[in-house]
Amino acid sequence: MTDRFDPAVADRRWQKRWAEARSFQADSNSAKPKSYVLEMFPYPSGRIHMGHVRNYTMGDVLARFRRMQGYEVLHPMGWDAFGMPAENAAMEKKVHPGTWTRQNIATMREQLQRIGFALDWSRELATCEPNYYGHEQSLFLDLMEAGLVFRKESEVNWDPVDMTVLANEQVIDGKGWRSGAPVERKKLSQWFLKITDFAEDLLEGLGTLDQWPDKVRLMQQNWIGKSRGLQFCFRLAGTAPGGACDIEVFTTRPDTIFGASFVAISPSHPIGEALAAERPEVAEFIARARAGGTSAAEIETAEKLGFDTGLEVLHPLDPDWRLPVWIANFVLMDYGTGALFGVPAHDVRDFEFAKKYHLPIRRVVADSPRGADEPVVEAEPGAGIAVNSRFLDGLASDQATAEVIKRAEAAGWGEGKTQYRLRDWGVSRQRYWGTPIPVVHCEECGPVGVPRDQLPVVLPEDVSFELPGNPLDRHPTWTTVDCPKCGAAARRETDTLDTFVDSSWYFIRFASQPDNRPFDRAEAEKWLPVGQYIGGVEHAILHLLYARFWTRALERIGKIGIKEPFKGLFTQGMVTHETYESLDGRWLNPDEVAVAENGALVERATGTAVRLGRVEKMSKSKKNTVDPEPILDRYGADAVRWFMLSDSPPERDLEWSESGIEGAARFVQRVWRLALAPKGNDGHDAALLRKLHRAIAAVGEAIEGLQFNKSVAALYELASAIEKAKPSATRDEAIRTLLLLIAPGAPHLAEEAWAARGETGMIADASWPAFEPGLLVDDEVTIAVQINGKLRDTMTAARGLSREDAEVLALALPKVQAQLGGGTPRKVIVVPDRLVNIVA
RNA sequence: GCGGACGUGGCGGAAUGGUAGACGCUGGAGACUUAAAAUCUUCUGCCCCUAGAGGCGUGCGGGUUCGAGUCCCGCCGUCCGCACCA
């Protein structure tokens, strides 16, 4: 035993002991209450970064805390192992994606183990292995049989040089991020999941997620984007009444129907395309309208373009009123019906369009019935009173809306409808490194699901990346199969699944992993839903929405009895660091920067000045990352863990700093010195005992609320109270309890100290201490004395002092007398044991 | 444009409407030491030649209250999400 805690020895020792004892293996058959703690599993990009360390430390503290509280805890880890970086590495480094990925997993697993996380490694999984994605294929077939999978033509970003599909983020200034070639829009037949079937349910379910951040719920709500309105038909002028619907539109503002001055259709609308076939000038306009990217920035600056088709439609409420039909670039084909009617006076976008093309702007909503003739200087999208609207005049906007819908439904030209912004989930990726979609295309039978007994459809590993495009497409044998239905020669589907599919059910597979099926329902339901899910807010929408959808889909087909996969969600902040920039604009690594004698920052190599940049999220491009590994070497796992928990509230960003990690390391040594204090003292220390019990309560409450910075502060207070206390039996007990309280955060230190103090068993198996409620308060209290709400003095008194006595004591204080100057107070307010406020 | 969050010392941050600044970092002074590291003690919001039984202080301006960092109204600023969604 030395007077310094040596993490280099202790960390390994206890990691080995926990592994040997299988301390963190979750027993599905345990009689204890269950607790499922999960952090978002990592993409195996190469090495663990500080963001992982922070995320997993938080989850680990909670998992260890729950275990000490007597729960059977499931705290697993795995790898979100499919995805593009592996293919990029394959092309750049000539290494197979599988090799690259599996090496990264091995490295990162070892790194995680060095930090001493209480993980059940027996349940580890990687989504790139057939024993995971094979089960995913079977679930895909289940959804297909249930009618939740369909094929649709859809536009993609196509890189003509790399011959590959690009995600929106890979299109930069309209060019492929790798090839630099202008990106084309190309229509491909792709696989979709019917998430829109669940739009209403996903929206309603948000109401039950009271342990989710409001922010995330709101983001999902906006993403689903429900709106109520009227869907109705315009008939083209010159066609017979009662015929088919010519142009169908959707509007959330039926009350403005008399303000319509044009109808606009999307460049992709069938009517436009039909016209284009006959009139070259239409085709030319459509081509121009479609050019330009789909990114937000481009759309923002895009000028509104319109083309008057010369066609006219009849106003549904006045057959003598004709509206021109325009093709407009701002009308989206995949929202609503791909067509709308424009009301320039009350829609910003329609206003801009009408100004440009000199279309009528007619006020139909005003603040009051008298405002009918007020000029419209800018779009007024708000609600009000209907004007210039015939039978609607005088009605409030919502009444007018209801009236128009009523009439439309009665007359049969339209109906009230709910629209969602949410689109169906396109899961096809023309990529190699992903789960093969288990389908065979047969000329006779169409797309046919691969029979269950032929699963998994294993991704072939004998592929090359020498040529551009998806290597699966040119595989000599893999694509050639017989149709499972008719036996004729057929071709295997070469699209793979979006990796978000892999992460949509991994938490179920963690809970139950039989060999012959994706999961056992009864076993999975013992653990699910996940009690606490922790991850970055960047997954607030897509991953969390897809997982909620997938769980609901499984529920609908009877595979599982829950709809919501994650009961509690916590989104932690990022780990940030200062950035450094050389005078010629290069980003510098922190270790390339030194502090000169005059205190200025200089570049180590050249001695030239360095500019201190903003504090930003650690990223390779800004070169402000700090690799956890050397830090672990230097300070040990517990100091790193402790720093991740202290300083910032978990939901906010944490700035990495040298002084911060050193402070944490100092605390580790402080606790160790306390642990070395001789035991077996006599005597009682009532004040310390109260502080101890207050700390037990405060730390427990803070961890429960995931406020780790507060639990750290409470432990610092306790440690310094113990340091200041004289030896006593109480102090011995306080030291023992301190070890229990730090055990979730600094487990190696806690174990080492536990053993050093001669305690039996591992602290990992110990129980969380209880506190005595009666000991949480002091006998003596400090009472604030205010005059007119301003603090003037304080006084010490026994707890439970009566109102009357408090008032008398306060009025007798010299400072109070001086302030009052002999006058009588008008009123005295007493909050027992807290304060006396004298109103003069 | 729409939606949301947040503004507290030199810094990160604490504060059921009741003593603002817990705890940590940084910095000052001191102790121990031949010296350094480590450790310990102590001070550390601002103002004032009046150092006090003093004044001012939680982005700014109002309001409610005996009492406001906290509640209400209006601004300003920063950050985040969505974005031609009919």
From TrEMBL:
One of its GO terms (cellular component) is cytosol. The keyword Cell cycle does not apply. InterPro entries: aa-tRNA-synth_I_CS (IPR001412), aa-tRNA-synth_Ia (IPR002300), Leu-tRNA-ligase (IPR002302), Leu_tRNA-synth_edit (IPR025709), M/V/L/I-tRNA-synth_anticd-bd (IPR013155), Methionyl/Leucyl_tRNA_Synth (IPR015413), Rossmann-like_a/b/a_fold (IPR014729), tRNAsynth_Ia_anticodon-bd (IPR009080). Gene3D superfamilies: 2.20.28.290, 3.10.20.590, HUPs, Isoleucyl-tRNA Synthetase, Domain 1, Valyl/Leucyl/Isoleucyl-tRNA synthetase, editing domain. Residues 685-802 form the Methionyl/Valyl/Leucyl/Isoleucyl-tRNA synthetase anticodon-binding domain. This is Leucine--tRNA ligase. Residues 422-578, 616-657 form the Aminoacyl-tRNA synthetase class Ia domain. Belongs to the class-I aminoacyl-tRNA synthetase family. The gene is leuS. A motif ('HIGH' region) lies at residues 42-52. It catalyses: tRNA(Leu) + L-leucine + ATP = L-leucyl-tRNA(Leu) + AMP + diphosphate. A motif ('KMSKS' region) lies at residues 617-621. Keywords: Aminoacyl-tRNA synthetase, ATP-binding, Cytoplasm, Ligase, Nucleotide-binding, Protein biosynthesis. Residues 40-171 form the Methionyl/Leucyl tRNA synthetase domain. Residues 221-408 form the Leucyl-tRNA synthetase editing domain. CDD domains: Anticodon_Ia_Leu_BEm, LeuRS_core. PANTHER family: LEUCINE--TRNA LIGASE, MITOCHONDRIAL (PTHR43740:SF2), LEUCYL-TRNA SYNTHETASE (PTHR43740). ATP binds at residue 620. It is found in: Cytoplasm. One of its GO terms (molecular function) is leucine-tRNA ligase activity. Pfam families: Anticodon_1 (PF08264), tRNA-synt_1 (PF00133), tRNA-synt_1_2 (PF13603), tRNA-synt_1g (PF09334). One of its GO terms (biological process) is leucyl-tRNA aminoacylation. Its EC number is 6.1.1.4.
